[in-house]
Design goal:
Elements lengths: L3 H15 L3 H14 L4 H13 L3 H14 L4 H13 L3 H14 L4 H18 L25 H4 L25 H10 L44 H10 L3 H9 L6 H5 L5 H14 L5 H11 L5 H6 L3 H16 L1
C-alpha cells in the first residue's frame, strides 16, 4: 500500500514534470522513493525526468531498478534503451528495444526508436559488408603459337622520345662576354626577345593587351541552385540558420541533417535563443505530411546534452510551446 506521503510527493512531481520543471520533479520523485522504495512507478517517473535533463546514467540506473522490481515493465525497457542509446551502448540499447517490442509488438514508439538506432548505427559503421558470392573462374590456357615470355623480356624497357646515344652532342654554347660592351653587343645581335623586361627601345612598351570578354560576365545559368548545403559544424549551422528568413527555408536546412546527428552537432553548446527559434520553426511547419519528421527531430533535440538545462532558462510560454508541439505531433 502506497503511503500518503509518497502519493502526495508523486502527484507534485507529476505536476512539475508537466510544467517542464524537471529538476523539481526529480526532487518530488526522490521524496516518494524515500517514503516507499518498493514502488517501481517512482523510479520510472524519475528516469523520465532524468532523460529530459540529459542525465542518461541516472536514467539507466533508475530504469534498471524498475526492471528489478518488475522485469516485464515495457516503459522501463524503453527508457533504459533511450538512455543507453545516448550513452553509445548500441548493443545494450538494441536488446532493450527488442525485448520491449516482444512484449508489445504493436507499439509504434518502440519501432521508431529501434529504426533510429539502426539508422545511426549504419551511419557510424558504414553500410554492412555483403556476403561474398562464389563465382566460378575458368582458367584460360595460353595460345600455343605465342612464345613464352622470358624473365628478361618481362622487365620494363627504357623508352625515350629521342635518341640517347652518348656520341650525340648539343650545339656549342657561345663564349662568355668579357666586358659590358661585349655583353650589350651580344644582346643586340640576338634581335628582339619574347621574354624580358616590359620596356622596349622603340618606345612601344605595351606587350600585353587586355581583352575584355563580355560574355564572361553573363551568368552560367538562369536559375541559381538554392538547395541548402548540409552544415558540418554548429557555427556553420547557426550562421546559415540566422541568414534564412522563412520557416520553410529553415526547415529545408534542418532536413539536410539526419535527426540522429543533432546530439553530435550541438554537443554541449545549444543556446536558448537557437532552441526557441528551432521550436518555433518546427511548430510552424508541422502538418500531417511532416509530423513524422518533426517527431524525429523533436526526439533528437531532447537528447542533446544541454537540452534539459536550456529548458530551465525558457519562460513558461516557451515550455508550453514545446508541450503543445509534442501533443500535436502525437495526434497527427
Amino acid at each position: 500500500m502506497v503511503s500518503e506521503r509518497a502519493k502526495l510527493a508523486k502527484e507534485k512531481g507529476n505536476e512539475a514534470f508537466k510544467a517542464g520543471d524537471y529538476p523539481t520533479a526529480i526532487g518530488h520523485y526522490t521524496t516518494a522513493i524515500l517514503a516507499d522504495g518498493n514502488d517501481p512507478t517512482f523510479y520510472l517517473n524519475r528516469a523520465a525526468a532524468y532523460l529530459k535533463l540529459g542525465k542518461n546514467e541516472d536514467a539507466e540506473r533508475d530504469s534498471t531498478k524498475v526492471l528489478a522490481l518488475n522485469p516485464n515493465n515495457v516503459k522501463a525497457l524503453f527508457r533504459r534503451g533511450q538512455a543507453r542509446q545516448s550513452l553509445n551502448k548500441v548493443d545494450a540499447a538494441r536488446q532493450d528495444f527488442n525485448e520491449a517490442l516482444r512484449l508489445e509488438p504493436s507499439n509504434t514508439s518502440i519501432k521508431n526508436e529501434l529504426a533510429v538506432l539502426e539508422k545511426a548505427s549504419l551511419e557510424r559503421n558504414g553500410k554492412p559488408v555483403p556476403r561474398r558470392r562464389r563465382v566460378p573462374i575458368e582458367v584460360i590456357e595460353p595460345e600455343a603459337d605465342k612464345p613464352p615470355v622470358t624473365k628478361d623480356e618481362a622487365l620494363l624497357q627504357p623508352v625515350s622520345s629521342r635518341d640517347l646515344r652518348p656520341e650525340e652532342t648539343i650545339g656549342q654554347l657561345p663564349p662568355k662576354p668579357q666586358t659590358f660592351a661585349h655583353a650589350k653587343q651580344a644582346r643586340e645581335s640576338k634581335g628582339a626577345r619574347v621574354s624580358g623586361g616590359i620596356f622596349r627601345p622603340s618606345g612601344n612598351h605595351t606587350i600585353v593587351t587586355r581583352i575584355t570578354n563580355e560574355a564572361s560576365h553573363e551568368p552560367t545559368s538562369d536559375k541559381a541552385d538554392n538547395a541548402p548545403v548540409r552544415p558540418l559544424t554548429l557555427f556553420d549551422f547557426t550562421r546559415s540558420w540566422n541568414s534564412l528568413e522563412t520557416d520553410e527555408a529553415r526547415w529545408k536546412l534542418m532536413r539536410t541533417i539526419p535527426p540522429s546527428s543533432l546530439p553530435a552537432l550541438f554537443q554541449a553548446s545549444l543556446e536558448p535563443d537557437l532552441l526557441k527559434s528551432i521550436l518555433h520553426t518546427l511548430q510552424a511547419i508541422c502538418n500531417p505530411s511532416t509530423s513524422s519528421a518533426v517527431r524525429d527531430y523533436l526526439t533528437a533535440l531532447m537528447r542533446v546534452q544541454r537540452f534539459g538545462t536550456v529548458m530551465l532558462f525558457m519562460d513558461k510560454r516557451e515550455r508550453q510551446r514545446l508541450e503543445s508541439l509534442r501533443q500535436e505531433v502525437e495526434s497527427l
